[in-house]
Amino acid sequence: MTETGIGAAVRRTEDQRFLTGNGNYTDDINVFGQTYAAFVRSPHAHAKINGINSTAAAAADGVVAILTGEELAADGVGPLICGWNIAGKNGVEAHNSPVHHALAMGKVNYVGDHVALVVAETQAQADSAAEMVEVDYEELPAVIGTGKALNHATTIHEEAPGNMCYDWEIGDASATDAAFANAAHTTTIEIVNNRVIPNAMEPRACLAQFNKGTGDWTLHVTSQNPHVHRLVMSAFNGVAPEHKLRVIAPDVGGGFGSKIFIYAEEVVCTWATRKVGRPIKWTAKRSESFLCDAHGRDHVSKAELALDADGKFLGLRVNTKANLGSYLSTFASAVPTYMYATLLAGTYTTPAIYCDVQGVFTNTAPVDAYRGAGRPEATYLLERVVETAAREMNIDPADLRRRNYIQPDAFPYQTPVVHQYDIGDYGASLDKACDMADVGGFAARRADSESRGKRRGLGYSSYIEACGIAPSAAVGALGGGVGLWESADIRFNATGSVTVMTGTHNHGQGHETAFAQVISEKLGVPIENIEIVEGDTDKGPFGMGTYGSRSIAVGGSAIVKAADKIVEKGKKIAAHCLEAAEDDIEFAGGNFTVAGTDKVMNIAEVAFTAYVPHNYPEGVEPGLHEQAFYDPLNFSFPAGVHICEVEIDPTTGETEIVNYTAVDDFGTIINPMIVEGQVHGGIGQGVGQAMLEGANYDENGQLVTGSYMDYTMPRADNLPNFNVGTTSTPSPLNPLGVKGAGEAGAIASPPAVINAITDACGGAMIDMPATQEKVWQACQAAE
Amino acid sequence: MPTVSMTVNGKAVSADVESRTLLVHYIRDHIGLTGTHVGCDTSQCGACVVHVNGKSVKSCSTLAVQAEGADVTTIEGLASGEELHPMQAAFKENHGLQCGFCTPGMVMSAVDLANNMKNLDEATIREQLDGNICRCTGYHNIVKSIKDGAERMGG
Amino acid sequence: MYGFDYHRPGSVADAASALGGADDGKYLAGGQTLLATMKQRLASPSDLVDLGGIADLKGITVSGGSVSIGATTTHAEVAASADVQGAIPALAAMAGDIGDRQVRNAGTIGGSLANNDPAADYPAAILALGATITTNKRQIAADDFIVGMFETALEEDEIITSVSFPAPTSAAYMKFKQPASRFALVGVFVAKTAGGVRVAVTGATSVAHRGPKLEAALNENFSASAVDGVQIPVDHMNVDIHAGAEYRANLVKVMAKRAVEACG
Question: Rounded CA gap, A663 and A373, in Å?
């Protein structure tokens, strides 16, 4: 391992600008002649619009334009789309897909829904004029509640009878029924996965510009995938031809999924900038982020686990109602289906699994991928039912898991629900986690707590996730509308420095550092001579962006493939210059050497020769610039064991996480410092979901938790230090052996926390978020 | 419109702004220093923290006119030239930031904390950091950074 | 935020006359609540009269066993004051746990009291400590000052100039925080004073109030166990997404016991 190569804890390159206030976020960018946007938003969850009167607003100070859905439609701008079709039970070929207008056409379907765009000279003027737009609403009953939406008296969309988007299934129903028929014990739980609001600290924003001279648009937008933004906005919304639209995602202040999607705001502003002839900037206020960013999770499920007398899992049967919100967001349909139920085998050998999912519409914000996206929901359900089974059967919960683990010699392992796991050693992670968490000393610690009038609990979570999304053909076969390969472009400059462009996007993950480490390792270039460029459709090759813990597994693999091509070409040039046969050239540490001699040429010299090809091999093109597209062979499968230990004051329900241990198998790790940081952050979000966060709509569809006054974000004093360790079974299916690390913490932690709390409270069922009040109630009931 | 003058990072600045202009918008839109961020509209997130006359305040909850004549320090004023302030250096060394958006406010709060409280332990840092929200780090490395930074600052 | 005219008078008299001359003026102290409300467009005063430039309103003095705090003294200044720490440590500790560091550097005692948020800490402190509020017009006893939710005895143009706290024998404030806003879900301030035990509760109901039953029990037997026998009425408790009535009533009891224990 070199100091800057794979495995080194290199300090981050990008930190310098962030630490000195020189980051370049969308709202930091201002251009000459810029105007400001404000959206008129629905105050009602469900209403007909009988008319919009903007006469007074249009005459207000500074107003440049007020635009509505009619004008958008008249200009042929298409509705917002969902890019993943879900085929249903009984041969139904397509899910119900209501039209999602970027600006409402006659009806609004959630509080915050977009009614009109106001463009003005200043933000304050735009905000004031937006208040003056008179909208004649006729209120309709609101459909609220994940479990109540199906066949509700009110139908939100006529395209979706009974408020059903799809009724989907996976697995073998009859084999599962047979397993239950033979079970010695059945454990049944009803379980809610609470709706959460992503809350990336940078609110969404965009700045749209149109150049009349060239007919080009430039859109700066808070995006995790600028090429996907460009593709969807040109192919489906039709706001600009793909080759005339430049999408730039500059520094982006966190995404967690919420900045994958193509939202109304950027589509409308990109359309309107040409119409009004001025650049338009829109920056969400936090209250708008709460209302209109796609939310996450929101499942109501029943899970049944069949076990034999020894605790071997025989079958798992799950029904889930998944709240999709008022409209389908960009990838919404896939999250509670292929991102969720395909993970229900977990790390276990359960031979028969059946799951059906009803996706439902409600008058709430759209729900889509949020850190983990489906996999946290699967893990939470599975690890809660396993924990409950252990309790019911009086088997140690770690032991029950161990009895059911897929063994290291069983890979590749085909689960009953689509996935084929490539490699893993789950028992190794469990052993290490138990050791780090000092599980052996728990009984004594519990006794000590009890002597102080406190309660103490310990909870496990043994998780697996499917990352590195995803093989394009598999995605297509399951209904996905895109390919999920990734690209890399390595351009040596004549002076020997390297510019690497890739289609992923860095919004906190440290790509500028970790990808440079890969290049430094593979090509022997000093890290300070490497520049990683992402986020601009005019610079880099087409790429699919960053989500699903895919950047290193898929993007990193593309970089390795392009680097291999650089070495291949470099060998030809070096062979010529060193007067040797190409086959005799070896490459290591940045040097091309003639095997068995001291004849050597550094890659920087090779690059110079490639650009100044005076003495150059015949038939070889000048330049040292290679590109690769990499389509993964399979998902990757990070897995591990998290153990949470809590102490509770039963008089108030105050719950302190006194120890949190995470052992993860991410395969090869490029930068352990960055990976640990990703684990910390993921656990923080998972603990937030488990104990603090919950989007709460009242029966009229008003978001009660619409600000940081009521939506509890984890603060520093809510969280402990985390005890993080790793095991490693490198993935055999990609050239780096990596698996992805961005989501593990958020996937693993909620069940670990809730299992610990329920353990402390005598096994009572507690739904997330386990607020102090709920924990107090459980303690009361237990005493 | 009132003319509001103050010293920002050691430089005298002045701009004609409306009374309702918040200090954060004065700094970002009129002075052009965009390191100070706006992450919420209810004064909780702390992305906008600056120092006014040596004390940390939320610049989204302060009117520019209230800071007339004040001595203001923003994240851009912390480093001396190329050399990072010890707190900035500690954040880099300990991986105390990911997406970077909360970072300016976090660092300004941390410097204020280290200036005002000595021998900071982990529990105190966590408790005193309740005015700053980070969504990326789980705070683990922020707390570590602040402890290290405070020690580098001589605390 | 809507537009307004801004005034920065140098004296209390000028401040009162600036407000008198405004259509719908408001005094601005630390602004930690008012500006937030205005940003949400929930308040739209025609004029803001900033009290921050009035030197007379700042500062802390101790004399004759009582602490007097100028109205625009910030929470941070109260928390850090050696005088307050010496005379009424519970008050310094309470001020040091209001909001967050940045709020404490800007928010003021006068602003907090004039606003009288039902979940604020200072209303409990003045009630339990039997403070006297001095304004540009008169002196008001704490028990008369707190009237209702966001409602005080202050007249339209009346300005709090200082608040005087007699030092108790011992006192403690215990706050159980609402997890999101960090305001008091329930806060209980207990003070042993020359005139007996005084208890004030904030956050639990629509307004901060004394706890006569708790006071009676503690006057008889100043111990945590005495609190156990007190019935905390559930009917008037606030109910919201953060806590139901029973939980709040329980917290009143637990916080009262913790405060009594902390009093020693």
Answer: 21
Residue in B98, B107, B113, B152 to test binding to A, most A beta-carbons within 10 Å = B98
Nearest CA in chain B to C40: B41
Residue contact C241–A704, C-beta within 8 A: yes
B3 touches chain C (CB under 8 A): no
C83 and C160 fall within a common domain:
yes
Contacts A709 to B, Cβ<8 Å: 42, 44
- Over the stretch C78-135, which tens digit does the pLDDT of each residue have? 999 999 999 999 999 999 999 999 999 999 999 999 999 999 999 999 999 999 999 9
Q: Which residue of C has its CA nearest to A714?
A: C180
Residue A254 near residue B102 (C-beta atoms within 8 A): no
Confidence of residue B1 (pLDDT cuts 50, 70, 90): confident
C16 in the same domain as C106: no
Other beta carbons within 10 Å of A776: 25
C37 touches chain A (CB under 8 A): no
Torsional class of C259: left (φ above 0), alpha (ψ -120 to 50), beta (otherwise): alpha
Q: φ and ψ at A618, to 5 degrees?
A: -65, 140
CB contact under 8 A, B100 and A716: no
Q: What architecture is domain B86-152?
A: Orthogonal Bundle (1.10)
Q: Tell me which chain B residues have a C-beta less than 8 angstroms from the C-beta of C32.
A: 43, 61
Q: Are residues C189 and C121 located together in one domain of the fold? A: no
Q: Side by side, which strands form the sheet with B11-16?
A: B11-16, B3-8, B71-73, B49-52, B55-58
Was domain B3-77 assigned CATH 1.20.1250.20?
Answer: no
Burial B110-126 (b: 16+ CB within 10 A, else e): bbbbbbbeeebeeebbb
| Residue A1 confidence (pLDDT) above 70 | no
> How far is Cα of residue A324 from the mean position of the Cα atoms in its chain?
16
pLDDT tens, B87-136?
Answer: 999 999 999 999 999 999 999 999 999 999 999 999 999 999 999 999 99
pLDDT at residue B128, rounded to an integer:
97
Nearest chain A residue to B78 by CA distance is A20
Q: Is the pLDDT of residue B43 over 90?
A: yes
The neighbours of chain A, by the rule of 3 or more Cβ pairs under 8 Å, are B, C
pLDDT at A227 over 80: yes
Q: Which chains touch B (3 or more CB pairs under 8 A)?
A: A, C
Beta carbons of A710 and C180 less than 8 Å apart? yes
Which of A715, C244, C131, C28 is closest to B62 using CA atoms? C28
pLDDT one-digit tens code per residue, A63-75: 999 999 999 999 9
Show the CA angle centred on residue C195, arms to residues C190 and C200, nearest 5°: 25
Q: How far is C55 from chain A (nearest CA, A)?
A: 33
Q: Which residue has the tokens 């040409």?
A: A274
Domain end (from C150, C166, C182): C166
Residue C231 C-alpha, separation from nearest chain A C-alpha, in angstroms:
16
- Residue A130: list chain C partners with CB under 8 A: none
**Interface contact flag, C106 B68, Cβ < 8 Å:** no
- C145: domain CATH number is 3.30.465.10
Identify the CA nearest to B104 among candidates B59, B148, B48: B48
